Amino acid sequence: xxETESAWKRAKKWTLDxxxxxxxxxxxxKPTPEVxxxxxxMLHLAFWNYGLAQTITGKPNPYGKEQxxxxxxxxxxxxxxxxxxxxxxxxxxxxxxxxxxNAKLLEEVNFFNSKMTRMSILGIALDHQTHHRxxxxxxxxxKGVTPPPEP
Length: 151
Known about the structure:
Blueprint: H1 2-21, H2 38-57, H3 68-71, H4 79-98, H5 102-105, E1 108-111, E2 114-117, H6 118-142
Antiparallel strand pairs: 1-2
């Protein structure tokens, strides 16, 4: 559990560094009209941090089952509000991990239409947030910002 918790704390720091790096006037930036904005990418990441952690911990996603409940909300489009909700999504995962032991992580739970261990779902969740943070690297570069390092 400790290693998994450490990985999520690192991911939280790296993601918040990305949010901090994007200029305030560019959080709504979209490289092309048909893709998510920077803020929407981060809100999508946050929604699924909550949603996947819900499956692992049993604690309900405070934004419900529809990702538009978070991703399309205009009140999270300022940099400060965006940062706060993204940070809270990581805290939700990390706090949820604190209530689990190794035996619980190896238990199988329902995951969409199959059974998976909580640990496997945590791996999917970590990959998911890394994927979307990685997408925002392009957004930062297109705005002339060097992405923060991920040592």
